[in-house]
Amino acid sequence: MTSPDNNIDNPSDHSSDHSSDHSSDHSLAGSSPNPISENKEVEPLSRTLHIGKPSWLKTPIPTGETYFNIKRDLRERKLHTVCESAKCPNIGQCWNTNTATFMVLGDVCTRGCRFCNVKTGDPNGWLDHDEPRQVAESAALMKLKYVVITMVDRDDLPDGGAAHVGLVVRAVKELNPGIIIELLAGDFKGSDEALKIILAERPDVYAHNIETIERLSPRVRDARANYRQSLKSLKRVRELAEYRVFTKSAIMLGLGEEEGEVQKSLEDLREVGVEFINMGQYMRPTNKHLSIKRFAHPDEFDRLGKFAESIGFVAVASAPLVRSSFKANEYYAKAQIKLAAQNTL
Fold this sequence. Notes:
Number of strands: 11
Low-confidence stretches: 3-44
């Protein structure tokens, strides 16, 4: 699936792409994603799911007037966001800046990535045809300025769900003039036609998460989610779009990668024109999912963030608690300012 705040505690997906997907222990921190520095570069792991988690992964309880107003209004209308269902550690920060994430195309993914907590199965072509209206009305109710729309992979549909996603983007735009839309999408099996359908609705940011380095990709992601195919998909978005679209991706740390391998993946993303990158700590949703190999220290995230900026990324979020949609509105605005100054918008 494609979801960055998808379950969880995971940065990228899902889902990513993304918005990709998707437990526990969202006691992960919120307001300060990279709060401290310690002597150890790598924190030793415990045998259990999250016991022994380092101090920089603790989060405060969400607060803020806008946060509580949104929560009240959503409950009154019995509406829900991925931010809540995924127990995202950054929910307070995002809602207080009028940013939220919605997952479309149902809650059953046709793929089974080993880090993701979204249900896997066969939806048999099911679609909620009222979903575009519901998402658009939810965004209006929340007075969102920036919305992230993520999706499950739908290999059971001929177009991978592209037409439905396009309708959601259109409905949100029509009911929310001026809203900025980030789409965290799957790879659509590398289909140009699927990309054209979505790009016709002109999302402002097109995100697809590579999730991890190339060496680990076969173990971490579903066999149909190929590292090189993901890079090709991101490249084709830039080539097919008839307007200025930003492309974005995300990488999880803690799965067994080396720092140099992460740098190589960052270079791979820049080679296909990706301008936004998010990096955060992988957190294991359940004991059935991939184990955490290490807790990457905040200093490593700092180094990788600086490296990303040095090779041309215009929006970089790199810290243990960063997820795919982390402060998306803020980073989008900073990128606009930076590119305007460079006359490259």
